[in-house]
Amino acid sequence: MKVSIVIPVYNTERYIEKCIKSALNQTYDDIEVIVVDDGSTDSTASILQKFENTIKIISKKNGGTASALNQGIKNMSGQWFKWLSADDMLKNTAVEKLILEINNIGKDAENFIFYSNYDLIDENDHVIDTFKEPNHNSLDSFQRNVILLDHFYGNGTTSIMHKSIFEKCGLFDEYLGYKDDYEFWLRCCMIFNFKLHLVPESLAQYRIHKEQLTKKRYDDALEKIEQIKAKTLCKLSPEMKSKYMTALKKYQKQKSLKTKIKKFSRTMLFKTLPKKTSNKILETYLNKKSNYKQ
Fold this sequence. Notes:
Elements: E1 3-9, H1 16-24, E2 31-38, H2 44-49, E3 56-60, H3 65-74, E4 80-83, E5 89-90, H4 94-105, E6 112-121, E7 127-131, H5 141-150, E8 160-162, H6 164-169, H7 180-191, E9 195-207, H8 215-234, H9 238-253, H10 257-272, H11 279-287
Parallel strand pairs: 1-2, 1-4, 2-3, 6-9
Antiparallel strand pairs: 4-8, 5-9, 6-7, 6-8
Helix pairs in contact: 5-7, 5-9, 7-8
């Protein structure tokens, strides 16, 4: 089974070379690496040329992560699509272990979006922590979807899925700006009955750095998330929408007091921060093993 690793990149000159090397240095041999340069204005293009004999390079005008992913998907020759963000890295056994889980699931694996745990690293590749994703593999589809409707899980850079998912569900939404992974997860799972499935090992390194977060983006993301939820629910029948809303309220009501206090404190803190506040606050949460990030 051939795996296409698609890396969307925009002005990530500091990290893209390490990212590509991590994709090429897989113990699983049947892969192709596709890097989509989304109109970078730094030295990204010249760095990519170092790998022109080992990767497929696609250059396009800037259009956002979703449009870059879609270009990679349209040009992939593999049966499986592996997303990798340009500032992140894969552990060298990542693809091998993902394929092993796919083989364990069998033919039905084409109806899953697989994701894994991951290490959190800083700008200098130092490991901050290991993020353990929730394991909902034992739950039925409806229960998984209620939890997904409540909050995002399944980091895109750890994910792998069969290419047929795009024929059934469509490509990533290029008009959102960001949170396109969350919209895609909800669309696939709630509308087309796909399932998120955890591979309970740390297979990637997710980088935290100062360009990632500002207070404005955090506020915009919260608003975008609510829009995505509403849009997805509106595509369901009135009966199914009502069923999900009832289950969601029950799920949220049953959350532990600790979880409720953590979410309230985080929200209030971000509301009072200066607009230019960046990754320092996020790193504080990560070092305290917060289970939420943007």
